[in-house]
Predict the structure of Cysteine desulfurase.
Amino acid sequence: MPYFDHNATAPLAPIARETWLRLSDEAWHNPSSPTRDGARARLRLDAARERTAEFLGCPPARLLFNSGATEGAHTVFDHWARTLPPAARIALNPTEHPAVLEAARRHFPDRIDFLPLTPAGLIRLDALATLFSSDTPPSALAVMAANNETGVLQPWREIAALCAARHIPFLCDATQWLGKLPASGLGATGWLIASAHKFGGPKATGLLVFPDQSESFSAQSGGSQENAHRAGTEDVPSICALAAALADAEQTKVFLEESRLHLRNHFERAIVSAITGSRILCPDADRLWNTISLLLPHVENARWVAKLDKRGFQVSTGSACATGKAGPSHVLTALGLSIDESRRVIRISSGWDTTESDWHALLAALTEVATELIPPANVVKP
Ligand code: PLP
C-alpha cells in the first residue's frame, strides 16, 4: 500500500528492527547494574551515544536519550522557566509543531511573542536581527528546522549564529529534518530535540542536545541515568536502534535528496495541471524533498483522504496529532490561508522507499478521486 504519510511516522528501518531484536537478546540488562552484563549494556549505550553525537556534531556528554520531541520540548521550556528571570519572554516561530507550542504555553503562559514570517513561511532574519538589537530582546527563541505540514526549511544555521552572538538560548526542533537531510551542524545549534520514529527508528525514543553553557542543566530527575539529566532505566535496544536508523540515513540516504526532489517536483507540476484551481503551498521556499501541502479547489480534505485511503493510498490532512481537532491548522493560518482554504489542504509525505511508479499511481488515484468530487471540467486526466 503506497504510504505517503511519512511525516506522521515512518516504518521501522530494517537495520533498526534487526538492531532492536538483537540487542533485546544480547543487551536487555539494566545499564546501571553493577554486574558484567550491566556493564556490557552500558558499553552499548555509550557506543550509541557516541555514534549519534558524531552525526549531530556535538560532544556525547551533551546528548541525552528520551521518549521523543514532545518530552524534549517540555524539558527545555521547563529548564528555561526555572532558570530565566521570572518576567522573561520567549519568541516562537508561529508554525512550530503543537508539541512545541503547547509546551511553551504551559511553561510560559502569557509570556510568548511570535516571530514574523515571510509570505513563504520563513522566519524573517532581518526582523530577528532588529528584535535582537532592540531594548526588549527575547530571553530565548524556538524555531524548527523543517515544517511538518509544508516541509519549509528554516534558516536554522543563521538563527543559531544570531542567538549565539547575543547569548540567547535557542531551541531547534529537528524532528522532520533528521534522517531526511544531513544532520551535520545540528548538534551545535544550542538546544535540539527529535524523535526516532520519523526516521526509521522505534517510537517513543528520541534525543535532546543541550548547549555548552548549560552545565547547570538538570532535569532535576533525582536519578543518575543519562548523566543525571533524565531518571529512569534506559531502553538500550531502542536507543541502539535509533542510532542505527540515523547512521543508515546519514550513510546511505541523505545524499539522494536531489533525485527524490526531482520526483516530488514532477508530481507537483503534474497534479496542478490535472486539477484546475489546485496549488502547492510555499512553492518557492526550500522545502523537504518528501513533503507537499496541496490546496484543492473544492470539498473538505477529509473526504479526499478517505477516498484515497479506500484506493490504497495513505495521505493526511496535516499534522497527525492535529487531525480530528476542531479549527484550522495554525500553520496554514500563519501562512495567510482562510479557514475555508485550510480545510481543503492535504499533506503528502513520501519516504526513501517511495518509487517513481508510486508517485505515478498517486497522481492517477488523485485525479480519479477528483473526477468524483469536483466538476469534471476542472479535471484533466494525465
Ligand atoms: N515536532 C515535529 C516537527 C513533529 O512533526 C512532531 C511529530 O509529528 C513532533 C515534534 C512531536 O514528536 P513526538 O510525537 O514523537 O513527540
Notes: The pocket of pyridoxal-5'-phosphate is lined by residues 68-70, 97, 99, 144, 148, 173, 175-176, 195, 319-321 (CB under 6 Å). The chain is about 40% helix and 10% strand. The chain has two domains: 14-252, 255-372. The mean pLDDT is 94.
